Amino acid sequence: MRLSLLSLVFVPSLAIAGCNGPVSETKPISEDVKPAVEKVLQVSGSEISPASDPTNEGGWVLNPDISDEFNGSEIDHDKWLVQGKDNDFYIWKGRAPSQFAPHNVILEDGLLKLRSQWEPDYAFAQETYADGAHNDPYGMLEGKPVPVTTAAIVSKKRFLNGYMEVRSKANPSSMTSAFWAIGFEQELDIFEQMGKPQTQGSISGNKTKLTVHDWSPPAIRPTRAFGYSHKLDHNVSEQFHTYGAEWGVDYLKFYIDGELQFHQTRESLGLDWVLNNPMELWLDSEIFKWLGVPTEDELPNDFEIDYVRVWQKPSTNLLQKHEAFFGFEGPMLFEDVEKPLDLLPEDATDNEYQKFWVIDEAAKNNFRITKNRWYNGVNSLKYVSRSGQPDLEIKTPEGGIQLAPGEYELSFKILLKNGIQPKKLRVSLTSPEVVIEPFQLEPQTRGKWITLKQRFTKDSASHENDQLKLEILSDDVLNGGTDFFLDDIRIEAVKS
User: How far apart are the first and last CA of the chain?
Assistant: First the structure.
């Protein structure tokens, strides 16, 4: 490494400019001093701020589980799944004819390099990959060898809402460079770039493309919900630039070098707003055959990533980790269990990694998760009153509640329709049992979302199988009753 005394003296100020401010046409931090800069960042990591908010007025907190400076000699396997390692592939092996290969994930010079190369001797999977109208074998295209291997990493943890950012330089060939995320029934392609496409299309060397996909059933292409394409004044493979996406409960913003480029809201999209569940991050390269296939003399080449960082905002909601679940948007995740390798975004079945609300057969006649009304996201729990109904209950999965001893307040949003409502909604914790004072539904305001709250005390910690249970007893229901919608269950500690 060529590192002068002058460089060492100014490393701290360089680190602040390079990570928090816009990247100029001439990179403010040379690749030679980059490793020294990262040492400073490691020491003062709590001071790293998003490029979109360099003074951190938003109170962002770095999430270390999904952030990486890529400074080591090999990828952190506790943090990232490398596609193809030990012959394990999550969801897919890549977009044919290219195939992900673990040896193409390289840490070098303080960078993550996702390499694409021409490898005639590689043992490609003897199968095809179907994607919409395309169904191609790996390593072949139209009967001719295209032995291109490439690379992908996937974060092992998911997160809900936050600001995600990379500093990267695209592959300077007709291979894609992509930064994207998927979760239950949703996909966010923060960018898909290509340094040198062979044909004109939606991606070019001086363009970046953002797309959101809806993977709710039937999950058949076209799945595009909304998106954005932006023409740049530079080629994406010539220099490093910073790309960021701020994902809120009801909005999405896209930034380049700290400058806002695109802003979309749930209010303007309605049901096309699909970004309601936790997502994992992907960094990868693929062949888009409709934009041309790389030739042997184009490869090898790399998609280079300086860092990936995710920030989130702290919350007083003790259910924040499972906020989407308690908003009836999707499953509760048990991330101490490895994700099934075949877990597709549209998969709505219970397994050890993801579990849904437990609604028994009797309660299914009265309780359903619906898109008719919502407070947050696009779903809520709908209760339908029926004559002669039995006692009804709906529960979280076992282990869905984990609280220490203390004083708490449970709240939720509820929309009561005009008419006769059940007199009470009962809420309890199961292990150990804690019965919360029933929520009185009569009399309450009708026709708009209101907040109901009750305080409760836990004398002992939750057992491993603790659950939250909602109940409506038959004695509390009058014939001719009407419906209500419930959303956004929260628990907060009561300050002493």
Answer: 55
